[in-house]
Amino acid sequence: MNPPPRDARRLVPAYLATAGRAHPSRNTLDRLTLLHGASMTASSGLRPEERRLLELLQPGALSLAEAAAHLRLPVSVVKVLAADLVDAGHLMARAPVPNAELPERQILEKVLDGLRALKSST
C-alpha cells in the first residue's frame, strides 16, 4: 500500500478523529510513551482511527510520536486516541526508560566487543 502524497489533504479534519475533544483523559502520556496492544480484543465499536492505531501496534510497540507519524495525525490527536484506548483496555502505555536507568555506554561497548570477538573466532 502506497502512502498518500505529502501534499494530499486529509478528507476529514484531525479533530473529528477525537470526536472534537482536544485533551486526553489522562496526562501521563507524552511523545516518548511506548504504546502496545493489550491483547487481541474485539475492535467493534471503535472509531476508524482507533482501529488503525491498534492495527499499527500489532507487530510491536511504538512511541506515541512514531505512531502519530505513521498515521499522519498530529501527536495531540494520537494522544487523545491512545488515552481512550488505554481507558478501554485495548492499549497499554509505558513510560520510556529514564536515562538514569540505562546501562552505561562503556558497558555496552565491552559487550559489543565481546560479541564481535566470539563471531570472529567461529
Task: Summarize the structure in words.
By secondary structure, the chain is mostly helical. It is 39% helix and 8% strand. It has four helices and three strands, in the order E-H-E-H-H-E-H. A three-stranded antiparallel β-sheet has the order 2-1-3. Helix 2 crosses helix 3 (75-88).
Q: Estimate what percentage of residues fall within beta strands.
A: 5-15%
Instruction: List the secondary-structure elements in sequence, H or E.
Output: EHEHHEH
Reported for the largest beta sheet, the result is: 3 strands, antiparallel
Counting H and I runs of at least 4 residues, what is the number of helices?
4
Question: What share of the residues lie within helices?
Answer: 25-40%
Separation, N- and C-terminal Cα atoms: 42 Å
**What Rg do the Cα atoms give?**
19 Å
Q: Can you list the strand order of the major beta sheet?
A: 2-1-3
Low-pLDDT parts are none
Shape: elongated
Oligomer: single chain
| Number of DSSP strand runs | 3
Average the pLDDT over all residues and give the rounded result: 78
Structural class: mainly alpha
